[in-house]
């Protein structure tokens, strides 16, 4: 649990630093996360993954089909979900 919380805090701190104007900060990891691979790794359906991303099912499907680009904040959220999925689920449940 402690490792999961640490990963979540690191991702949030990186995002905050970027939005506060951190000049040398790159919020998007060099290697982008494939949403299909992540979703399958977590054993989720598209209908389960879309709300975790805060988006509609049709919007999420467009990501997976390559019809819509993954934005910077969404890429960060994918990294947080990959790093600390239970923390994200807990945050959404509360």
From TrEMBL:
One Pfam entry for this protein is: HTH_3
Q: Name one GO molecular function term.
A: DNA binding
CDD domains recorded for this chain?
A: HTH_XRE
Segments crossing the lipid bilayer? none
Q: Which residues form the HTH cro/C1-type domain?
A: 38-88
Instruction: Extract the SUPFAM superfamilies matched here.
Output: lambda repressor-like DNA-binding domains
What protein name is recorded for this chain? Transcriptional regulator, XRE family
Please spell out the taxonomic lineage of the organism that makes this protein: Bacteria, Pseudomonadati, Pseudomonadota, Alphaproteobacteria, Rhodobacterales
């Amino acid at each position: 649990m402690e490792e999961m919380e640490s990963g979540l805090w690191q991702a949030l701190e990186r995002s905050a630093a970027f939005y506060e104007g951190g000049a040398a900060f790159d919020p998007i990891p060099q290697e982008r996360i494939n949403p299909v691979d992540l979703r399958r790794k977590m054993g989720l359906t598209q209908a389960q993954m879309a709300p975790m991303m805060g988006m509609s099912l049709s919007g999420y499907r467009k990501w997976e089909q390559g019809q819509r680009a993954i934005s910077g904040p969404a890429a960060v959220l994918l990294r947080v979900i990959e790093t600390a999925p239970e923390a994200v689920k807990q945050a959404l449940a509360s």
